[in-house]
Write a structure and sequence with these properties.
Layout lengths: L7 H17 L11 E6 L4 H7 L9 H5 L1 H12 L5 E4 L5 H14 L5 E8 L5 H8 L24 E7 L37 H15 L24
Parallel strand pairs: 1-2, 1-3
Antiparallel strand pairs: 3-4
Pfam family, one: Ketoacyl-synt_C
GO molecular function: 3-oxoacyl-[acyl-carrier-protein] synthase activity; fatty acid synthase activity
Organism: uncultured Porifera
């Protein structure tokens, strides 16, 4: 009965975290009781909107089933992890900010192991209505970032989990773990006051990237791949 009252995002997070541990070569049983940190990026409350439409379906487990805070806490509960456990909601950047917080805790030796996850599931028409009224959705159903033909973005679903440990790539400390990549660092800032509370600042984003490249001693010209938050909207993805 509790599972039926859970936001599907909570359920799929448990799945991808288990898969991430397996992929990293870490048996979940070996982490029981350990100070593992859990950092989840999530902002979608579609399930709450859909259930509230039928109030007769609400039971006692609904309170924890819809809480974004429980999205991370349930992971810590199921795997019996004792480290920090938090859900971070900064809209589209939620997962990246969660990653930044995890890296900071690892860098300062607050946790020996961190699990970072993000999830977004589309379960209600309510956000579609709001985004449509704001003219943010593509009427053609195609998101074309950085294109002159861009006319909006398209909502989508996804869930991912990463297992992080402090150290250099190739150094597993004698552990039979699979290292997939090395993260040099992350940075977070706020644009402060712009022309609108939800509108980005090109100057603010550029300042963050410059500071990050300088701190990590990365030359932008040598980047081989860039994954951007290209929404294809007039305000969020402006074309000069």
């Amino acid at each position: 009965r509790e599972a039926l009252q859970m936001d599907p995002q909570q359920r799929i997070l448990l799945e991808v975290v288990w898969e991430a541990l397996e992929n990293a070569g870490i048996p979940p049983s070996q982490t029981v009781g350990e100070k593992v940190g859990v950092y989840v990026g999530a902002s979608n409350v579609d399930y709450q909107n859909s259930v509230v439409a039928d109030q007769s379906a609400i039971e006692g487990h609904f309170v924890t089933g819809i809480a974004l805070s429980i999205a991370s806490n349930r992971i810590s509960y199921v795997f019996d992890w004792k480290g920090p456990s938090m859900t971070i909601d900064t809209a589209c950047s939620s997962s990246m900010v969660a990653l930044s917080r995890a890296l900071d805790d690892l860098d300062h030796d607050r946790v020996p192991l961190a699990v970072v996850a993000g999830v977004n599931m589309l379960l209600s028409p309510v956000p579609y209505i709001g985004f449509s009224c704001a003219r943010m959705l593509s009427p053609t159903g195609l998101c074309r970032p950085f294109s002159a033909d861009a006319d909006g973005y398209v909502r989508s679903e996804g869930a991912v989990a990463l297992v992080l440990r402090k150290g250099r790539a190739g150094d597993a400390g004698g552990r039979a773990e699979r290292v997939r990549a090395e993260i040099l660092g992350a940075g977070v800032n706020s644009d402060g006051r712009t022309v609108g509370v939800s509108l980005p600042s090109v100057a603010g984003q550029a300042a963050l990237l410059r500071a990050l490249y300088d701190r990590l001693e990365v030359e932008p010209a040598k980047l081989a791949f860039v994954e951007a938050h290209g929404t294809g909207t007039q305000l969020g993805d402006p074309r000069a």
